[in-house]
Amino acid sequence: MLRNISLRSRIFISMIFWVVIAFVLIASVTIYQYSEQNRDYHAERMERKEEQIKQSIDLALQKTTYPVTTENLGHIFRDEIYEIALVQNINFNIYDLQGQLIKSSRPKFEVDSISTCLDAEVLNNLASSPNKRYVEQKSAAGYNYQASYTYISDKRFKNVGILNLPYFEDNSFNDKELREILLRLTGAYLLLMLLAIGLAYFISKYITRSLQTISERLNQTDLTKRNEKIIVENPSEEIGKLITSYNEMIDELEISAAKLAKGEREQAWREMAKQVAHEIKNPLTPMRLSVQNFERKFNPNDPDIAKRVSEFSKTLIQQIDTMSSIASAFSNFANMPAQQNETLNVVKIVKMAVDIFDENYIHFFSEEEEIIAKLDRTQLIRVVTNLVKNATQAIVNVDSPKVLVTVSKDGDFVKMTVEDNGMGISMESKEKVFEPKFTTKTSGMGLGLGMVKNIVETYKGTINFTSEPGKGTVFTVRFPIANGA
């Protein structure tokens, strides 16, 4: 999915993502650090309290007049246990070596909630501990607390009892401090997030600006016209290389386009010269034969000499007229129609052009009385007459010939159709219809439809056709309607 996102969006999202990741990591490390700090603090504090109570117990054992035995611990600490708990500000319990409760510093009504007998697991862990100390993790009423167990020894380091120190962890202060730090950290990161969003936007825009310029120029690259080079101030090294490559490509493209255009022009002129030479040779051959025949049979004393000269002249004039029409056709095709852009009523002009033809099978129809377009009157008439003339030549051998010319509106275009029921156009000929030298007729230069296409496209129009062999052809021409028409 990320592949379909633009480069600018990916840069923007990546920067925001890493800011969020950094916040999560720092918050996690902060919480972990506070947890470790609390644990170490409470462990050290419990050891310190335990050591202070043990010192107080050792002092009480030194002052007592009772023999220091397990049985006398209850007598020795009958009142002393409360003084020690008051001084150290913490309650503790004393058990015998079998885990039976001997004395507790808690008030009488709280003693019932204390375990009067230690578990065998506690005794075993305490006995097997290298430092003769065991700490048990417990929980009560939703609170976590620790309970440490250590031996009480006499002067000869003989164990006479077990000291139990319940230690409740009070994390309210640290939790409050942690919440305040996380709150401040969240505020700082929200501000950082806003700054990152703004910075990510400008950085992504700056990075992709040059790429956007290059992309736009690539989309605008046109082989048929001169393309502008890309100029970007202070580009990065990578973007600079890309721009240089594009500009070099444009230079090479212009050189190649110039060579191609020159080659196409030369090829077009060669083809045109061949066509002109071929068309001129056609009437020259009968002219030559006529002259040779006239020279061989010429007899000044022939009584029909006037008739023979007249026939000979007509033949030459006919061939000369043919050569003249060839020259006119090529001249008309070579001359690009000038864009006069006259404001014309296309319906009226097309009807006028159709009326030139006398054939009764040629019909004109239009539902509109007026469709305005900016065209050249002469060129529009030339388009109509060429299409109608082609249609009439296509229905020579048809029993019931018919040519229908229509004009109508088609959105923002004026549409003209020329339909005939003639022989149609074969599949292999359809792609060559608009080529300048293509023709299916036994006479003519095949320049008419090429010239029509040239005129139509000059005025930003379109021409196309549909044809079915044996049933007829329909040519459709569209010109843009004048604004406000």
UniProtKB/TrEMBL annotation:
Chain ranges of the HAMP domain: 205-258
Q: Select a single GO molecular function from the record's annotations and give it.
A: phosphorelay sensor kinase activity
Residue ranges occupied by any Histidine kinase domain in the UniProt entry: 275-483
Membrane spanning segments where?
12-34, 181-203
Q: What is its EC number?
A: 2.7.13.3
Has UniProt tagged this entry with the keyword Nucleotide-binding?
yes
Q: Does the keyword Transferase apply?
A: yes
Q: What class of enzyme is it?
A: transferase
According to its record, how does it sit in the membrane? Multi-pass membrane protein
Which SMART domains does the annotation name?
A: HAMP, HATPase_c, HisKA
Protein's cellular compartments = Cell membrane
- Catalyzed reaction equations: ATP + protein L-histidine = ADP + protein N-phospho-L-histidine
Q: Which UniProt keywords are given for this protein, alphabetically ordered?
A: ATP-binding, Cell membrane, Kinase, Membrane, Nucleotide-binding, Phosphoprotein, Transferase, Transmembrane, Transmembrane helix
Q: What Pfam families does the entry give?
A: HATPase_c, HisKA
This protein's GO CC annotations: plasma membrane
Please report the name of this protein according to its UniProt entry.
histidine kinase
Source species = Arenibacter palladensis
